[in-house]
Amino acid sequence: MKKINWGIIGCGDVTEIKSGPAFNKVPGSALVAVMRRDATKAADYARRHIVPKWYSDAQQLIQDNEVNAIYIATPPSSHIDYTLMAIDAGKPVYVEKPMALNYTEANKMVQVAGEKKVKLVVAHYRREWPLFKKLQQLVSENAIGDIQLANLQYFKPAQSDAELAIEKNAWRLNSKISGGGLFHDLAPHQLDIMYHIFGPAKKINGLAVNRHNANAAQNIIAGNILFKNGIVFNGAWCFNAATNSDQCELIGTNGTINFSFFSSNKITLTNNNGYTEFNFEKLQHVQQPMIEKTVQYFLDKAPNPCTGQDGAEIMRWIDAISSGNQ
Q1: Mean of the pLDDT values across residues 190-197?
Q2: How many angstroms from the chain centroid is the CA of residue 255?
Q3: Domain architecture of the chain: domains with CATH
Q4: Contact at 8 Å (CB) between 144 and 226?
Q5: 207: pLDDT confidence band, cut at 50, 70 and 90?
Q6: What is the per-residue pLDDT across 20-48, written as a single tens digit (0 to 9) for each?
């Protein structure tokens, strides 16, 4: 394989800017086909993004001989079906997060990909951002000494009736489609960075409840993780709050590191040397660095930037934390 010719299954909002255009900007990569069940929308996307082919049937796209890699950007409920279809055709897969509805599905995807020796990458794309690479560097250099605790807080006001009337908002609160509420949509980004930097978990506890009757999704979640290296993680998510809050603090024996996942492009470091601020430019296409690494992996030029096993492990954490809704 000398060039990755991508086919996208699910050319919706996430592909408009975050990912779609990047496939033509990465060396050795081209977007050659897109699929959406709504033929009119699929054709419109192809026209606007100058994509040669469009389909309204996923199997037709997968069987297109020109397409040699598949990007799955549909809601989580269909990730397993489309992934297994692509694997069955022998085509490597780049699948959106969360990887699946739950750990069981994610593990099945990993198992089949391994059995059929087909490459599988999960789109935990923040791993490749300069901001989080710098965070990883600061941790590895012991910039704040021996890290003891990671505290995460993420709060958002409840969505209005008008917002929930929009399909792209509504499906995220339907557990049959998303796996859960906004926690399932947003927390994978956060937890994957914790896993990527701190490693395996030894113990996971969680509590999840619904305190907002407008929908059935869990909207207050608390999670605790004890990592095998002894670091303790405390996370709190509230999707029925008065104001927004997006912050994470790493507390070490010699200082602290502060950053956010969604609302800021900086890291602040306070240690024995004083206060330092690291600022990063906003990426035009947030998935482009990860897509570049994925293309290199598919071309046998680099390791897998986020394995199926990694994606499945994050689903195990999500399940463990959110299963406390008794």
Answers
A1: 98
A2: 29
A3: 4-124+287-305 (3.40.50.720), 130-282 (3.30.360.10)
A4: no
A5: very high
A6: 999 999 999 999 999 999 999 999 999 99
- Is the dihedral angle over the CA atoms 255, 261, 262, 267 positive or is it negative? positive
| Torsion on CA atoms 99, 103, 106, 108, rounded to nearest 10 | -170
Q: What stretch of H or E contains 276? A: strand 274-279
Non-local (6+) Cβ contacts of 156 within 8 A are: 182, 238, 239, 241, 244
Q: Which two tokens stand for residue 233?
A: 């993680």
CB 204 within 8 A of CB 225: yes
Average pLDDT over residues 1-18: 95
- Report pTM: 0.96
- How many whole angstroms separate alpha carbon 97 and alpha carbon 190? 12
Non-local CB neighbours of 208 within 8 Å, separated by 6+ positions: 183, 218, 220, 221, 222, 321, 322, 323, 324, 325
To 10 degrees, what angle do helices 308-322 and 182-198 make? Answer: 120
| Among 318, 325, 97, 104, residue whose Cα is nearest residue 204 | 318
Distance, in Å, from the CA atom of 85 to the CA atom of 285, rounded to the nearest integer, reads: 27
58, two tokens: 């996923």
Percent of the chain at pLDDT > 70 equals 98
Helices (H) and strands (E) in the chain, counts: 12, 14
Tokens of 264: 């800021």
pLDDT for 183: 96
Q: At what angle do helices 130-140 and 182-198 cross, to 10 degrees?
A: 40
Q: Is the dihedral of CA 248, 316, 92, 58 positive or negative?
A: negative
Percent of the residues in the chain that have a pLDDT greater than 90, as a whole number: 90
Residue 171 — φ and ψ, nearest 5°? -65, -25
Q: Determine the Cα–Cα distance for residues 221 and 237; give it in Å rounded to an integer.
A: 5
Average pLDDT of the residues in 201-205: 97
CA dihedral 259, 261, 266, 269 (to 10 degrees): 20
